[in-house]
Amino acid sequence: MFVMAGTWTDVIGSGWGVSISFNGGQDWEHHDWQQDYQPRYTYFVSKTEGWVSGGSFPTYKRAGTRSLSQHIELADDGYRIVGAPQPHERLPGWVGVIAHSTDGGKEWTVQFNDTGSFYFNGIFAADPLNVWAVAEGYHGGYVYHTADGGATWEQQLFVEGASMTCVKFLDKNEGWVAGAAAVASAGSNTAGFWHTLDGGATWDLITLENHYVMSLDILDATHVYATAFSRAHSALLHYVPA
C-alpha cells in the first residue's frame, strides 16, 4: 500500500488530499481531504485508517520560486534556504490541521485545527492510538502527541528557533524527531535530532553542523537513517549510537 499527500491531478480534475495505491503503484485512488489548506504529510496504520497533517504559512512570493516550507524555497536554479527574515508572526496565514480517516481516505474528520501559531509537517502513528505530529511556526518547532487516536492532543515539546520536519517511532516508547535545531539565512544550518525513549515525556538532542534534515526512517534501535542537505550537497545520514 502506497499513500501520498499533496495536490493530485487526473483526467477528471484535481484536488488537495491523498492518493492511494493498493497494487504497488499501478493504479491510484485520489481522495480530497475537504480542507482549504494544503495537505503536507500522511500516515496510515492500515488500509482504512490514517491521518493527514498540513496547513498554511505566510510567504513572501518571489518570481520564479515556490515555497516548500517556512524556511525553504524552490527556485529555477535549485533550492535556497530562507532563514531570515522569517514570516512575521502577525501576518495572517498560520494554520495547522490534522484530519483522520477510517474508510481509506474517502471521508475525513478534523481532529486538530490551530490558527495563528504554526503549520504541521510530518506525522506518524505507532499504533491506532499513539500518533505524533511535528509543526513549525514563527517562534520555533513543536511536537504534538495523542494517546487516544486523536480525540485529544498534547504538546510534548517546543524548541525556540527550531524547524521540525519529520517524525518516526519504532514503537510507542522510542522515537525520533528531526529537522534543524537552528536555521540560518546563509545556509549554515544546524541539524537537530530529538530522541525519546519514554514516548515523548523527555527528549535528548543530537546536532550536526551544516545540515538540514528533510526525512527520517527507523529500522531498529541502532539503525536510523535521514536525508539532509546543505548549501553544497545532499546527504544520507546514519545514526551511530555512542
Structure description:
This protein has about 240 residues and is mostly beta strands. It has no helices and 21 strands. A four-stranded antiparallel beta sheet has the order 4-5-9-10, with no helix packed on it. A four-stranded antiparallel beta sheet has the order 11-12-13-14, with no helix packed on it. The radius of gyration is 17 Å and the shape is globular. The relative contact order is 0.12. The mean pLDDT is about 85.
Please sum up the structure shown.
The protein is mainly β and 242 residues long. It is 0% helix and 57% strand.
Ordered list of secondary-structure elements with their pairings:
Elements: E1 2-10, E2 13-21, E3 29-32, E4 38-44, E5 50-56, E6 65-67, E7 72-75, E8 78-81, E9 95-101, E10 109-115, E11 118-125, E12 131-137, E13 140-146, E14 154-160, E15 163-169, E16 175-182, E17 190-196, E18 204-209, E19 212-220, E20 223-229, E21 234-238
Which strand order does the major sheet show?
A: 4-5-9-10
For the sheet with most strands, the description reads:
4 strands, antiparallel
Topology order in helix (H) and strand (E) letters = EEEEEEEEEEEEEEEEEEEEE
CA-CA gap between termini: 35 Å
